[in-house]
Design a protein that fits this description.
- The chain is of the alpha/beta class.
- The chain has two domains: about 240 residues, Spore Coat Polysaccharide Biosynthesis Protein SpsA, Chain A (Alpha-Beta Complex); about 150 residues.
- About 55% of the residues lie in helices and about 10% in strands.
- It is built from twelve helices and seven strands.
- Strands 3-2-1-4-6-5-7 form a seven-stranded mixed sheet, with helices on both faces.
- Strand 2, helix 2 and strand 3 form a beta-alpha-beta unit.
- Helix 5 runs parallel beside helix 8 and helix 8 runs antiparallel to helix 9.
- The protein is elongated.
- Bound molecules: guanosine-5'-triphosphate and magnesium ion (MG).
- The site of guanosine-5'-triphosphate (GTP) has 19 residues, from strand 1, strand 2 and helix 3.
C-alpha cells in the first residue's frame, strides 16, 4: 500500500529535517511504500529549502509549495496532490513540530489496515494524554473545541475530533468534495471528519500522548477559533435543513392527500376506494419530493422504484406508530378530545419516519462496491454517525 504522510509546515526550519529523519527510521519497520509530502506555504525561514536538500537524499520525500492560506487550505492542496500525482492508497495528517510522535505511525497504520477507514491519534481516549504542563486556558481551549465539535457539529461518539494526527483511507478522501468544506484554518479537521463520518467511514481512535513543541511557535490564531465555531454551527444547520425539508414535504403531502381525496369523491368514487388511493398518491408525492429534493445530495445504492417500495413500508411503520400512540392516549386519557390524540400520534411518527427514511431508504452509500475497506463491510455505531 502506498502511504503518504502529509506534513504542513509554516516556519518549521528547526523541526522538519529531524522529523523527516525520524519518520524514515520508522518506515524501516513497515512493509508499505511510505512517502512524506511536505506542504510548505513559502515559509520565510527557508523550510522548503531544507526539504529540497532532503529530497536529494530520500526519493520518497516530496514538496509542495504555495502561498499561505491556512492549515486547512494546505491540507486540501496536499491531499489532492497525494491522491492525484502520488496515487496514495492512504494518507496521514501530521504536524511538523513533534507534537505527534513518529513512533506512533506504525500503530495508526495497523489500525487502518485491520479495522478502520479513519484512524485518529487520540488524546482523549484511555491511554492518551495532553501535556500535564498545559495551562488551564489551553486545556479549556482544547476541551471547548472538542465539545463544540461533538455537540454542535454532531460528532457525538468521537472523543478527539480536533486531533491533527490521523490516518485516512484514500477511498474515503476521493469521495470528498474539498471545495464544499468551506474552511481555511484549523476548522478543516472537524469539517473533514464530519464528511468522512457522513460517508460511512469507520472511525477508530488510537491513544497517543501529545507532546508540546520544543522548537518554533504555534500558528493557531483568533480567526481560526472564530472559523472553527462558525463551521460547527454551519454543519449543524445543514443537518437541520434536511429535517426541515422533510417536515415541509410531509406537510405538503397532507394537503395532497386531502386534495386528492376530495377530487376522487367529486369524481364519484366510493370513499373506501378513494381513501387508500389518496393516501398512496400522497406517499408517492412525498417520496418524489424527498428523493429529488430533501435527500438529493445522497448517493443511494437502490433504484428509485426500490426506494419507493421502502418509503411505502416506512409509511406503514409510521402509521403503526401513530395509531398505537392514538390508541394508548385514548385508553389512558379517555377524556381528552380524539383530535388531540390523533395530533399527538403524528409527533413520534414524524421522527420514526424521518429516522427510517434517512438511515434506510435514502441511506448514503458512497463507498464503491469494489472497496474492500471496513466501511464496505463493518457495521457502524449509530452514535458515530453524523448523517442528518
Ligand atoms: N502549510 C501550512 N502549514 C501550517 C499553517 N498553519 C500551521 N501549519 C502547520 O501545521 C502544523 C500545526 O500547527 P501548530 O502551529 O503546531 O498548531 P498546534 O499544533 O495546534 O499548536 P501548538 O501546539 O501550539 O504547536 C505545524 O506543522 C505547522 O507548521 C499554514 O497556514 N500553512
Ligand atoms: Mg503544534
Amino acid at each position: 500500500m502506498k502511504v503518504v504522510i502529509i506534513v504542513p509546515t509554516y516556519n518549521e526550519s528547526g523541526n522538519i529535517i529531524p522529523l523527516i529523519t525520524a519518520l524514515q527510521a520508522q518506515f524501516k519497520r513497515l512493509r508499505h511504500d511510505m512517502h512524506i509530502l511536505v506542504v510548505d506555504d513559502n515559509s520565510p525561514d527557508g523550510t522548503a529549502g531544507l526539504v529540497r536538500q532532503a529530497m536529494q537524499e530520500y526519493s520518497n520525500v516530496h514538496l509542495q509549495t504555495g502561498t499561505k492560506a491556512g492549515l486547512g487550505a494546505a491540507y486540501i492542496r496536499g491531499m489532492q496532490y497525494a491522491l492525484g500525482e502520488l496515487g496514495a492508497a492512504a494518507v496521514f495528517e501530521m504536524d511538523a513540530d513533534f507534537s505527534h510522535d513518529p513512533a506512533d505511525v506504525p500503530r495508526l497504520l495497523a489500525a487502518l489496515e485491520t479495522s478502520a477507514d479513519f484512524v485518529i491519534g487520540s488524546r482523549h481516549v484511555e491511554g492518551g494524554s495532553i501535556p500535564a504542563e498545559w495551562s488551564v486556558l489551553r486545556k479549556l481551549n482544547s476541551a471547548g473545541g472538542n465539545w463544540v465539535a461533538r455537540y454542535v457539529a454532531g460528532l457525538y461518539g468521537i472523543k478527539d475530533c480536533t486531533a491533527g494526527f490521523r490516518a485516512i483511507r484514500a477511498s474515503i478522501l476521493r469521495q470528498i468534495d474539498f471545495s464544499a468544506l468551506r474552511v481555511k484554518g484549523y476548522a478543516f479537521q472537524v469539517a473533514l471528519l464530519h464528511q468522512a463520518v457522513t460517508l460511512g467511514a469507520v472511525v477508530q481512535e488510537v491513544p497517543v500522548h501529545f507532546i508540546d513543541r520544543k522548537l518554533g511557535t504555534s500558528k493557531l490564531g483568533l480567526s481560526d477559533i472564530i472559523e472553527f465555531v462558525l463551521n460547527a454551527w454551519w454543519i449543524r444547520m445543514r443537518a437541520l435543513r434536511t429535517f426541515l425539508r422533510f417536515a415541509l414535504v410531509g406537510i405538503s403531502g397532507t394537503v395532497v392527500n386531502l386534495g386528492a381525496f376530495s377530487l376522487l369523491l367529486h369524481a364519484g368514487m366510493n370513499k373506501f376506494t378513494a381513501s387508500p388511493l389518496a393516501i398512496e398518491i400522497s406517499i408517492v408525492w412525498n417520496f418524489l419530493l424527498n428523493n429529488y429534493w430533501t435527500f438529493k445530495d445522497r448517493t443511494t445504492r437502490d433504484r428509485a422504484a426500490l426506494k419507493g417500495v421502502k418509503f411505502n413500508l416506512v409509511s406503514l411503520v409510521s402509521l403503526g406508530v401513530s395509531f398505537t400512540t392514538f390508541i394508548a392516549l385514548s385508553l389512558l386519557f379517555p377524556k381528552i378530545p380524539p383530535l388531540l390524540s390523533q395530533l399527538a400520534g403524528i409527533v413520534p411518527a414524524v421522527f420514526v419516519n424521518y429516522f427510517l427514511n434517512s438511515y434506510w431508504t435514502f441511506r448514503h452509500h458512497a463507498i464503491e462496491e469494489t472497496d474492500a475497506g471496513p466501511a464496505a463491510t463493518a457495521a457502524k455505531t449509530p452514535s458515530q454517525s453524523a448523517q442528518p
